[in-house]
Specification:
This protein is an alpha+beta fold. Helix content is about 35%, strand content about 25%.
Length: about 350
């Protein structure tokens, strides 16, 4: 794919105090800026650039903004070619967060403008910025997803005392059922993926390729962990977490429905939360949910606090912000068909389709 780079300003325009946007960023400096910015998230980190390209086939254009040589803003963009939705530019697709990080409004405006220029040259219908808060009130915005995050106490004993009594009883039930908890890295990916892929088929959603999780572990080797819950020799639940500063983020988790009476999903989340506390984290991010959905209620019972996300849009050839999620109702028939597919067939077809559903 031919890169769609941001054009550098003419030399005559490079004046003291001017904001210069380019694609000349380096990973180390980029990540240092993300980690220092109050709105930085794990989804802004440089490592996702290779993950998106290698696992999902979408190239990135990572924009940096400088003023008098100093890095003052960043914007990770992914150029998405979808056979379902056409071309779009998104920060960040397949993830919960993204969008502009900037020192001030002038820098933010320069990054918005550069992203719009890239999208036009790419032939995109729109640019989607997955912000956590409103940055550009003048742009269309959708608040159809909730961020779910829980503050963590200093000790696991305090965490245990704080969770709902029903939750504690379900965790105890799982422990008394003899379920085994394991955490690790690449050696657990296949077990996790078996559960994740089965659950995605049951939900009527094409599954991501297995390489997405392997590439994520490669890109964030020091921050990523895989958890599995076993019943005997059978993996019945699993999840992936990423540590970002003082927050542990759980972007993916699943459990098998037929083993639900054993409460494996409760033991999975308790294990991830307990390890986060023991590791000194002060916050656990459950990922995003749709208001009123099953995962929304599940996360609330763990004490998660909800915050509406603000996905802002620059519309180029569209009149309205896109509504491409399964809750829109547009894909009910396709979801019903997918749920009836044999698991093996769904696992073959899923990765071919999922890369087109950002």
């Amino acid at each position: 794919m031919t890169p769609v780079a941001a054009a550098a300003p003419p030399a005559a325009d490079i004046r003291p105090g001017r904001v210069i946007v380019s694609t000349a960023a380096s990973g180390a400096e980029w990540d240092a800026y993300v980690r220092a910015h109050p709105d930085g998230t794990v989804d802004h980190l440089w490592g996702w650039r290779s993950v998106m390209a290698r696992a999902l086939g979408h190239e990135g254009e990572y924009l940096e903004a400088r003023r008098d040589g100093a890095l003052v803003g960043v914007l990770p963009l992914v150029l998405v070619r979808s056979r379902v939705f056409g071309r779009s530019v998104i920060s960040m697709p397949f993830l919960n967060y993204g969008g502009v990080l900037a020192d001030d409004a002038t820098v933010a405006a320069a990054l918005f403008d550069a992203a719009t220029d890239i999208a036009r040259r790419f032939g995109a219908s729109h640019v989607e910025f997955r912000h956590r808060t409103r940055i550009r009130p003048d742009l269309p915005c959708r608040q159809h997803k909730l961020a779910m995050q829980r503050p963590l106490p200093p000790t696991s004993e305090e965490l245990w005392a704080a969770v709902d009594r029903k939750v504690r009883n379900q965790v105890r039930k799982a422990q008394k059922s003899g379920l085994e908890v394991r955490s690790g890295a690449h050696e657990l990916v296949d077990e996790f993926y078996g559960v994740f892929a089965r659950n995605m088929r049951d939900l009527g959603t094409p599954v991501y390729p297995r390489t997405l999780f392997r590439e994520t572990l490669d890109a964030f080797a020091d921050a990523a962990r895989v958890y599995v819950i076993r019943h005997g020799s059978t993996c019945i639940a699993g999840g992936v977490v990423l540590r970002f500063e003082d927050t542990v983020v759980n972007p993916w988790a699943s459990s098998l429905r037929e083993f639900r009476p054993l409460c494996a999903n409760m033991l999975l989340y308790w294990s991830m939360l307990e390890d986060a506390v023991r590791g000194g984290a002060t916050s656990f991010d459950f990922g995003r949910s749709s208001p009123g959905g099953g995962t929304h209620q599940f996360k609330l019972q763990w004490g998660a606090v909800e915050q509406p996300l603000c996905w802002e849009y620059v519309l180029l050839t569209r009149r309205e912000a896109p509504d491409q999620g399964p809750s829109s109702g547009r894909f009910d028939a396709a979801i019903a068909v997918w749920r009836r597919l044999p698991v093996g067939l769904a696992n073959v077809l899923g990765p071919l389709v999922a890369r087109h559903l950002p």
